[in-house]
């Protein structure tokens, strides 16, 4: 239990009519690498072991962490990114995610980068602190204490004072060197009035394998991922005061905004045809937001999954295809070996929307390995990481966008295509053209979140119906 002045400062409250007293906490840190994913995933799994229904969320555009969250929580991991969807949709999306498929007892939101690190040039916008304010949740700060003693209290005090609108309700000490080290840290943090809710020693750290774009996705290593999540649950159960975390989460005020509704967002079904829309999945195409499928379904589509590594053909009756992000470079040979599906996509005459991995898969070749050949480009891996938010404008009419539509997205890749864009580019930003619009295909490196521009789902379903 959290006791003393802090507990008295923000008592649990009763929700007014129409509101929801959802317990919730944001897991943040002073910087990347402090252990946010370890703590957040372990919390989700440990709370679920207690019989609680937990709702997992991730600040920012990242696709990989939500996969581990989903495994831990037993329900989809969802993203909360003000840049991609607009600040006004963050609390409604949280409420929606915590309501589907059943109401959650608690929501755990993993932050991104450092607590106050936002979109470059935009101050705190899209930072963990920004999202914590938008959803009115207390922050549980994970602190790497390696080579740090009493100064940890000064760091936490500064983090708390930097933005008084963000409430740091407790600290998890990570990578503690010894019992004496832990006592020193606890005593120092008690001086500044911030409770320590857990302490993880260096000897019991649990790590998931990573590679060129971060952690290896859950879908590529399901048995090992289950073991990692179970180990993280064990870790949190043995080192974190779960009762204190629950008490902290229950101090969040009621959510008064209505839940985001995909049917309202797309304006209802686009017709009565219910066209089949195939969405790429499987180990090679793991980057997808849960709201994409929800929006397509609400717009009237019958959404089915196709795995380009294993399925020899598109599902029967497919009228449109969505190929999102992932790691085709890791699975290039297996993708190339699926000749039947590559040939079908090369000649498919329905609308296609492809992002990043989808762009590479639809090209002629990736690192010399043959792909679908639907787009006239080749791609190759490089040593350079292209990463960042983008303020884009649709450069051409396509199955997903009207020319001139403004869209915010992000890039995250180490490949390049030759050429970099077609005669009819998909986007323009920073004075340059990007991507390809060819026939009924829209393909580019830009990752987008359709909750931020639901017209894309409706437009695609309308095009499939025609």
Automatic annotation (TrEMBL):
Pathway annotation from the record: Cofactor biosynthesis; adenosylcobalamin biosynthesis; cob(II)yrinate a,c-diamide from precorrin-2 (aerobic route): step 9/10
Stretch forming the signal peptide: none
Residues annotated as catalytic: 356
Cofactor(s) needed for function: Mg(2+)
Superkingdom assignment: Bacteria
Keywords: ATP-binding, Cobalamin biosynthesis, Glutamine amidotransferase, Ligase, Magnesium, Nucleotide-binding
Family matches, as NCBIfam families: cobB (TIGR00379), PRK01077.1 (NF002204)
Family the UniProt entry places it in: Belongs to the CobB/CbiA family.
Protein name listed in UniProt: Hydrogenobyrinate a,c-diamide synthase
């Amino acid at each position: 239990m959290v006791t003393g002045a802090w507990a008295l400062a923000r008592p649990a409250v009763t929700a007014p009519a129409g509101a929801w007293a959802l317990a919730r906490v944001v897991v943040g840190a002073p910087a990347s690498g402090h252990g946010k994913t370890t703590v957040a995933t372990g919390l989700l799994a440990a709370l679920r072991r207690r019989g609680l229904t937990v709702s997992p969320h991730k600040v920012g555009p990242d696709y990989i962490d939500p996969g581990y969250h989903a495994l831990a929580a037993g329900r989809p991991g969802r993203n909360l990114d003000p840049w991609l969807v607009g600040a006004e949709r963050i609390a409604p999306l949280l409420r929606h995610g915590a309501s589907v498929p059943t109401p959650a007892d608690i929501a755990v939101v993993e932050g991104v980068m450092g607590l106050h690190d936002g979109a470059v040039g935009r101050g705190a916008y899209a930072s963990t602190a920004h999202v914590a304010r938008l959803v009115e949740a207390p922050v549980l700060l994970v602190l790497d204490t390696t080579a740090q003693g009493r100064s940890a209290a000064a760091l936490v005090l500064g983090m708390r004072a930097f933005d008084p609108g963000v409430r740091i309700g407790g600290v998890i000490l990570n990578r503690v060197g010894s019992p004496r080290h832990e006592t020193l840290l606890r005593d120092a943090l008690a001086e500044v009035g911030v409770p320590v809710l857990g302490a993880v020693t260096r000897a019991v750290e649990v790590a998931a394998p990573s590679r060129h774009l971060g952690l290896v996705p859950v879908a590529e290593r399901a048995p090992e991922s289950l073991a990692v999540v179970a180990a993280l649950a064990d870790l949190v159960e043995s080192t974190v005061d779960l009762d204190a975390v629950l008490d902290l989460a229950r101090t969040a005020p009621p959510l008064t905004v209505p839940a985001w509704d995909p049917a309202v967002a797309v304006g209802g079904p686009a017709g009565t045809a219910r066209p089949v829309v195939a969405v790429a999945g499987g180990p090679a195409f793991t980057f997808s937001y849960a709201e994409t499928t929800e929006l397509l379904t609400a717009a009237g589509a019958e959404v089915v999954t196709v795995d380009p590594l294993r399925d020899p053909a598109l599902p029967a009756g497919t009228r449109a295809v969505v190929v999102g992000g992932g790691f085709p470079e890791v699975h290039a040979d297996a993708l190339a070996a699926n000749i039947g599906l590559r040939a079908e996509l090369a000649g498919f005459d329905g609308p296609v929307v492809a992002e990043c991995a989808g762009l590479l898969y639809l090209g002629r070749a990736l690192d010399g390995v043959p792909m679908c050949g639907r787009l006239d480009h080749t791609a190759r891996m490089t040593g350079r990481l292209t990463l960042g938010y983008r303020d884009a404008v649709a450069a051409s009419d396509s199955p997903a966008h009207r020319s001139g539509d403004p869209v915010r997205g992000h890039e995250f890749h180490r490949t390049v295509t030759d050429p970099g864009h077609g005669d009819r580019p998909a986007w323009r930003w920073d004075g340059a053209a990007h991507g390809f619009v060819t026939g009924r295909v829209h393909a580019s490196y830009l990752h987008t979140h359709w909750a931020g521009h639901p017209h894309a789902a409706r437009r695609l379903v309308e095009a499939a119906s025609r």
